[in-house]
TrEMBL record:
CDD domains xrefs: PBP2_Bug_TTT
Pfam families: TctC (PF03401)
Native source organism of the sequence: Serpentinimonas raichei
Signal peptide region: 1-28
Domain of life: Bacteria
Record-given protein name: Uncharacterized protein conserved in bacteria
Length: 334
């Protein structure tokens, strides 16, 4: 190769590099080209919907385009996730998701057409704990009494409810059964409302439930008894309930139900960064923070995309490990 040809080749390489870098920048500058769709994979009015609608107005303002909320429920949230992933990977469709439908559903349900790796996290918004609640007439007032009762009831195991087979609350219940070394019988429900009705009515003995407003109101009213929470540090509003992970033998019983904004894994980095900034900026607004914290949520501080990717990988592996330990087998969605 002659010097002149080498110089031309080097120039072409440099030009290609500049073109690639400026293409990503140009995509970010052009984004968003139209209103963004935020898919919430549950019906309107639930905890996920509340979180999404709190951050939506300011995130829209930060992006210069309206964010349109679409509630697409069904099949434990998997219908909404699959619908969102079928859209182009350009950042124009985002998901407000949680471990329930992102990680657990593909492990527990047959026919789910995605894995958690098909998405990437661009904003970790909030987390909340779960509370171990028992029926008010069970005759126990703390976790040690519950464990003692369960061991003395081995011939007729105590029952615990969850919002469905393979749900996060099912997983936490099985982990509690394993670590406390007590027999428990799982009773799946199709949602929080019928589960709470049966727990307050005495048809089941206990459940791990999200620390949402209506649930904590029922606990405060004495319609069920709260024994402990799965948070490492209890929320200031509910710090009278002890952390289960602080008890001997239950150190691994630390679970948080988190919610975040996700996009298709192939979404350009520059677009992902723009979305991340928009949602994290919205989260710093005092009114938004106060509204989210008033319902028992812990509002997260901004994280880089690298930090978010590491967190998402760790969460995925953690839940998969627990699912394997309980021999979770995929079933048809109900």
């Amino acid at each position: 190769m002659t010097p002149r040809i080498r110089i031309r080749a080097l120039g072409a390489t440099l030009a290609a590099s500049v073109l690639l870098s400026t293409t990503g920048f140009a995509k970010a500058q052009a984004f968003p080209r139209r209103p963004i769709t935020m898919v919430i994979p549950y019906p309107a009015g639930g905890p996920s919907d509340h979180i999404g609608r709190q951050v939506q107005p300011l995130a829209s303002q930060n992006l210069g385009q309206n964010i349109i909320v679409q509630n697409i429920g069904g099949a434990s949230g998997t219908i909404g996730i699959a619908r969102a992933l079928s859209a182009p990977a350009d950042g124009q469709t985002v998901i407000l998701g949680s471990p329930m439908e992102l990680i657990m559903a593909p492990l527990a349900l047959q026919g789910v057409a995605y894995n958690s790796e098909d998405m990437k996290l661009v904003a970790y918004l909030v987390s909340t704990s779960t509370i171990l609640a028992v029926r008010s007439n069970l005759g126990v007032n703390n976790v040690n009494q519950l464990i003692a009762l369960a061991r003395n009831s081995a011939n007729r195991p105590l029952t615990y409810g969850s919002v469905g087979y393979g749900s996060l609350y099912h997983l936490i219940g099985e982990k509690f059964s394993q670590d406390a070394r007590i027999p428990l019988t799982h009773v799946p429900y199709r949602g929080i409302a019928p589960l709470m009705t049966d727990l307050m009515g005495g048809q089941i003995d206990m459940a791990f439930l999200p620390m949402a407003g209506t649930i904590m109101q029922a606990v405060s009213a004495g319609r069920m008894i709260g024994l402990g929470v799965t948070a490492k540090t209890p929320h200031p509003l509910f710090n009278r309930y002890p952390a289960l992970a602080a008890m001997p033998g239950l150190e691994a019983l630390e679970f948080e139900v988190w919610a975040g904004i996700l996009v298709h894994k192939d979404t350009p980095v520059a677009v992902s960064e723009r979305l991340s900034r928009a949602f994290y900026t919205a989260l710093q607004n005092t009114e938004v923070r106060n509204s989210l914290e008033a319902t028992g949520n812990n509002v997260m501080s901004p994280r880089s995309l690298t930090e978010l990717a590491a967190f998402y990988r760790q969460e995925t592996e953690r839940y998969r490990t627990i699912a394997r330990s309980m021999n979770l087998q995929p079933r048809m969605a109900q």
